[in-house]
């Protein structure tokens, strides 16, 4: 593994216009790579802490100057001249520097930006595609890129909360990325046409690109997804996946789903 020359961070805006951190990792031979760390609209109960500035006069308190300063003034200094044999060793060193259970000292946004930038820089120096580099790190064989999962419909905090489940995703089963995108695009366009006809809605998208039809039940949004796939005659080539984000409709160990109060087992 190469030595690290520096980390450099700046504050940027993500696709929602929300501040986040972009980190560049540089090696002495001039190799460098960058990574940005956009935050999700929903936050799981066990997620690490994003470090925000709390200045209500700037980005309503969501600025990331503290996280940026932690990269530029502390992390970069501590890592300068170090080298690591694996990504795991790098991450463990960074976690030890933070020293808190939820990454609250340095900020998960600062730490993840450094971790991803380092990983990308190593792959770039090796002239290895990033997914193959990850596979090598974990002694796995990677014959091809992982399958795509593409937002079709959104609810929860990614949309207007019309249904509690956050995302219904398309998983194309094609052999290549090019073919997968063709399949997903066809289903997406048919779904948009269905929404326009059934709900009179324009092709407006939610936070992560999914359509957000005004369905009132979870079953209804699943039925709409299945109908869109069936209308394309691609039911053997496109499957569905779900990003539930269940912690956002859970209270006292129970889940409120379509006016029902369910245990974890009942919800599944």
Draw up the topology in text.
Layout: E1 6-13, E2 19-26, E3 32-36, H1 65-79, H2 87-98, H3 108-126, H4 130-137, E4 150-154, E5 167-172, H5 177-199, H6 218-232, E6 238-243, E7 250-251, E8 254-257, E9 260-262, H7 264-267
Antiparallel strand pairs: 1-2, 2-3, 4-5, 5-6, 7-8, 8-9
Helix pairs in contact: 1-3, 2-3, 5-6
Q: Low-confidence segments, ≥5 residues, pLDDT <50?
A: none
Please give the order of strands in the largest beta sheet.
1-2-3
Number of helices: 7
Q: In which range does the helix fraction lie?
A: 25-40%
The total of beta strands comes to 9
Structural class: alpha+beta
The major β-sheet equals: 3 strands, antiparallel
* Overall pLDDT confidence: 90
State the end-to-end distance: 44 Å
Strand content: 15-25%
| Global geometry | globular
Q: What string, H for helix and E for strand, traces the elements in order?
A: EEEHHHHEEHHEEEEH
Q: How big is the Rg?
A: 21 Å
Structural account:
It is a single chain. By secondary structure, the protein is of the alpha+beta class. Helix 2 runs antiparallel to helix 3 (108-126). The longest helix is centred in the last third of the chain and has 23 residues, at 177-199. The protein is globular. It has helices at 65-79, 87-98, 108-126, 130-137, 177-199, 218-232, 264-267, and strands at residues 6-13, 19-26, 32-36, 150-154, 167-172, 238-243, 250-251, 254-257, 260-262. Strands 1-2-3 form a three-stranded antiparallel beta sheet.
